[in-house]
Prior knowledge:
8-stranded mixed sheet; PRTase_dom; alpha/beta; Rossmann fold; two-stranded antiparallel ribbon; globular; 6 helices; 31% helix
Amino acid sequence: MTTGTEPLRGVTRVTHLVPQTNRLRALHAVVRDREARREDFVLSANRIIRGLLDAALDLLPYEPRDVRTPVGQVYHGLSPATPVYGVSVARAGDSMESELRVMAPETRLGKILIQRDKVTKLPRLYYAALPAGIGRGHVLLLDPMLATGGTALAAIGVLLDHGVPEEHILFVNLLSAPEGIRAVHDRHPGVRIVTSSIEERLNENAFMVPGIGDFGDRYFGTDVPA
């Protein structure tokens, strides 16, 4: 797992790599293990996702909120300054949506379905359902993998079309390839990326190295031959 930022000089200012703790590396050792049982994969992936969502929520704007404690004292706290929305890119992003629903049940959720066209090899939008007023808040765009950046750019385009400023978009994922990060930042420099790993590169088949395989198949159990 890459812990440095050397391959990404010039774009790392809006790429937030969460602290590479021993605990995180232990969780990655499980989800990257090709022999991992599905239940272990899901449990470890969910723990990584929670940390990513906490990191992303911490980057949102907050405003002062004073509350009185049970002992009669005032605590000077904070509350979100704008509405927060979560938008998952189906299907793999559904895993992150479920964790966000548990962590912040008040968050309004949307969904985007994008698939690669078999002929043109380009991402194609099939479905989008977004909450009303989404342009007035900040959006956590949820997709575990950022490889070439094609799907991410298509999803960001949907949000922009619905009035969300790119500076209000946080793209949250488990693994990011340098090629995908560059693709997103070259087109939309205001979009911030929150990830738990910056990979080494993409291989000739556009899989991340060292990688994790197909996250959606492994998470939802559809990688088992019929």
